[in-house]
Design goal:
Blueprint (H helix, E strand, L loop, with lengths): L3 H13 L1 H39 L2 H23 L8 H8 L8 H16 L7 H19 L3 H20 L2 H12 L5 H26 L6 E2 L3 E2 L15 H34 L3 H17 L8 H9 L5 H21 L6 H22 L7 H14 L2 H12 L5 H18 L4 H5 L10
Antiparallel strand pairs: 1-2
Helix pairs in contact: 1-2, 2-5, 2-6, 2-7, 2-9, 3-5, 3-11, 5-6, 6-7, 7-8, 7-9, 8-9, 8-16, 10-13, 10-15, 10-17, 11-13, 13-14, 14-15, 15-16, 15-17, 16-17
């Protein structure tokens, strides 16, 4: 929690070091955006190579080998250069802000970038958002050391870097700001919130421009002709009726229960893996990569292309059965990936899991009752993120960033609020806070 001293200090710092503040905002925004874009682009290019190999050879020959080799190489990179680059990275950042001796520097960012691209590109079912948060905060820490900034301002820079990373990877600057306030640096001081906001918006703007240069063609949000554009990833047709609130409350409670089971599953596997493999990152990532590869090799072809599968589920073009199957597969394999300490984020799996629950709930409701709200899939996304990470407002803005459909605000808000309150009743701590209850990888004694 930010006190009066920190706020007063920041106001004085702005007056005396105005030029340094401007340089910090621009540098952090640019670096956070370029690492996020490079991460997504690298994973996308490796996915193209993986799919090309699958066109020529049987999955049972390719996926286990890719998982094993990718896990081995990623484990070597992490083990040799910076163990603190393992895992999602958000827990590491929160631990650092709480005074834990966790490395945050340029070496962490580079190791995360390389190791994460290799791991996710070779088949580990994780996302780019956790790494983007850690890379942005690590670069911000390095910048603070080069500029020799005071300790209080260093924490502000590090928090801003984390939010900028999330803003860049989702194209959601408001979500980046709110994430800082909900999870990283809880404050209500307007001048500090403004600093976080400007940094996140700068990162989002740079990210949009870099995407337009061909570094990441999945989302084109800027062109030399039209300038900045809105490019929703999904365009759902949403109708919202008062009766929908009942369905959303039921969905929120159910998602909170499933979310709690999911978090406990991840933490349990992580602890058991630590006891078995200790700090042998290479061995556990090699074994876990091979296991994940074997699982996906015996699944239908649609499971081999993560992006297409996500789009089918989120757009509601998949059957309820496929939604249920996707939930089981992602639930199981993300646990294996997390237990390996693979450098990847959990927001993307949470999005898929939440959408799968929403899709299955939609199909069941339509079959039994004959009616189902059109907002259930996106409400499921927001609710599941909220239940696991305890960031309901961030969850709402992530959904809005995916769709740019303001009509989703009310139904998603209802589901997120119910999921959040129910999950807090089950356990007061988020998945990241529970990971902090144990020694993190790379943490110094």
């Amino acid at each position: 929690m930010v006190g009066i001293y920190e706020s007063t200090f920041f106001e004085k710092f702005i007056k005396n070091k105005y030029s340094l503040l401007i340089i910090s905002i621009i540098t952090i925004g640019f670096c956070a955006s370029i690492t996020a874009v490079l991460f997504r682009s690298g994973v996308h290019n490796l996915e193209i190579v993986r799919l090309a190999l699958l066109d020529r050879y049987k999955p049972i020959y390719i996926l286990p080998i890719l998982g094993m080799v990718g896990g081995c190489i990623s484990g070597l990179v992490i083990s040799c250069f910076q163990p603190a680059s393992s895992g999602s990275g958000i827990s590491h950042l929160i631990g650092f802000l709480h005074g834990r001796k966790i490395p945050l520097n340029l070496r962490v960012a580079i190791t995360k970038l390389i190791g994460g691209i290799i791991a996710i590109g070779s088949g580990f079912p994780l996302g780019a958002e956790g790494p983007s948060v850690q890379m942005g905060s690590s670069i911000a820490w390095q910048l603070s050391k080069w500029f020799k900034t005071p300790k209080v301002f260093t924490k502000l820079l590090v928090s801003a870097g984390g939010g900028a990373g999330l803003a860049a990877v989702f194209g959601a600057p408001i979500a980046g700001v709110v994430f800082i306030l909900e999870e990283l640096f809880r404050t209500s001081k307007p001048i500090i919130i403004l600093f976080f906001a400007v940094t996140s918006f700068v990162a989002d703007s740079f990210g949009a421009i870099l995407n337009s240069l061909g570094l990441d063609n999945e989302s084109i949000r800027f062109s030399s002709t039209n300038g900045f554009m809105i490019d929703p990833h999904h365009e759902p047709l949403i109708k919202f009726f008062p009766v929908d609130i009942i369905y959303l409350i039921i969905l929120g409670v159910f998602i909170a229960l499933i979310g709690e089971i999911y978090v406990r599953y991840l933490i349990t596997l992580q602890l058991k893996s630590g006891k078995i493999f200790k700090n042998n990152y290479v061995l556990k990532m090699t074994i876990c990569g091979a296991i994940i590869g074997v699982i996906y090799s015996i699944l239908p072809e649609i499971f081999h292309e993560f992006t297409e599968l996500d789009n089918l589920i989120i757009d509601g073009r998949a059957s309820s059965l496929l939604g249920f199957q996707t939930f089981i597969v992602i639930f199981l394999t993300t646990g294996i990936a997390v237990s390996a300490g693979a450098p990847g984020g959990l927001f993307m799996p949470m999005i898929t899991l939440g959408a799968s629950i929403g899709l299955a709930f939609y199909g069941l409701s339509d079959l039994v009752i004959g009616y189902a709200p059109s907002s259930l899939i996106f409400a499921g996304i927001g609710g599941f993120i909220s239940a696991c990470s305890r960031t309901p407002i961030t969850s709402i803005f992530i959904v809005l960033a995916l769709t740019h459909n303001n009509l989703l605000l009310n139904p998603v808000l209802v589901c997120c609020a119910v999921a959040y309150v129910t999950s807090k009743f089950l356990n007061s701590h988020s998945i990241y806070e529970r990971q902090l209850e144990n020694k993190l990888m790379g943490e110094e004694q």
